[in-house]
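PROTEIN DESIGN WORKSHEET
SECTION A - STRUCTURE
LENGTH: 69
TOKENS:
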């Protein structure tokens, strides 16, 4: 439960990526090569979200294993 709440908080704290309707229709091909690596707070929050997701997945597998034995 704690990990689930932390994942929700981490996702909500990430900065919004603003896209308009034209990029949704065109597929955003113009932005393909203009993407830059996230830096600072955004990079930190992405790493935190990935780590929390891996922990959630591992805990889920462990609970399935424990409940089956």
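SECTION B - SEQUENCE
RESIDUE ASSIGNMENT:
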């Amino acid at each position: 439960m704690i990990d689930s709440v932390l994942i929700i908080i981490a996702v909500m704290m990430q900065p919004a990526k603003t896209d308009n309707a034209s990029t949704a229709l065109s597929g955003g091909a113009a932005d393909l090569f203009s993407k830059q690596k996230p830096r600072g707070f955004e990079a930190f929050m992405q790493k935190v979200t990935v780590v929390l997701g891996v922990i959630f997945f591992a805990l889920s597998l462990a609970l399935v294993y424990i409940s089956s034995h």
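SECTION C - NOTES
The helical segments are 2-13, 21-26, 41-68.
DSSP finds three helices and no strands in the chain.
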